[in-house]
Amino acid sequence: MLPRRLLPLLFALALAATAGAQSVENVLAEAGLLGRWANDCSRPAGGGNIHTIYAAGPGGEVTLSYDHGAGSTPTVNRIESAQRLSPERLAYHQENRSSGVGIDIELAISPTHIRVWTSRQSTGQLLVENGKFTSDGLESPLHAKCR
């Protein structure tokens, strides 16, 4: 059992930790991630030019959608948690709205570009490591922020 004099200190520490926690929307907004990203913003979504959209809804839900172009249904994921790891890195956990499959993502970020640096499914399968697809060794696409 803890001495009574430690209880106020523990409560203060817990309160400080909670106060320092940020919402997913705030983490993504402060990193400049909200909005549309693409390989080529001057071209519409489709073919090899998937548009990635990070959006915050009115109820506080943050989604990540992949726009594959006309005639295709966007893939929509809900971002459950997010954390800024450094000025150049951001990590988040997403879950696909349709399948419920979870993926942990780490992005390499700059004010104008993003790249998936690490991607691991909730099953443990590593999809991207050090910015390269584990399946073929090719670099994950570099996406520019669309204006």
Describe the structure.
This protein is mainly β and 147 residues long. Helices cover 14% and strands 42% of the residues. The protein has two helices and ten strands, in the order H-H-E-E-E-E-E-E-E-E-E-E. It is globular, with a radius of gyration of 18 Å. About 10% of the residues have low confidence.
Q: Give the strand line-up of the largest sheet.
A: 1-2-3-4-5-6-7-10
What share of the residues does DSSP label as strand, in percent? Answer: 35-45%
Radius of gyration: 18 Å
Report the major sheet.
8 strands, antiparallel, barrel
DSSP helix count?
2
Question: Cα distance, first to last residue?
Answer: 57 Å
What attributes does this structure have?
147 residues; mainly beta; 8-stranded antiparallel beta barrel; 2 helices
Write the layout of secondary structure elements.
Blueprint: H1 7-20, H2 24-30, E1 35-38, E2 51-56, E3 62-67, E4 75-86, E5 89-96, E6 102-109, E7 113-121, E8 126-129, E9 132-133, E10 143-145
Antiparallel strand pairs: 1-2, 1-10, 2-3, 3-4, 4-5, 5-6, 6-7, 7-8, 7-10, 8-9
Summarize this entry quickly:
The chain has two helices and ten strands.
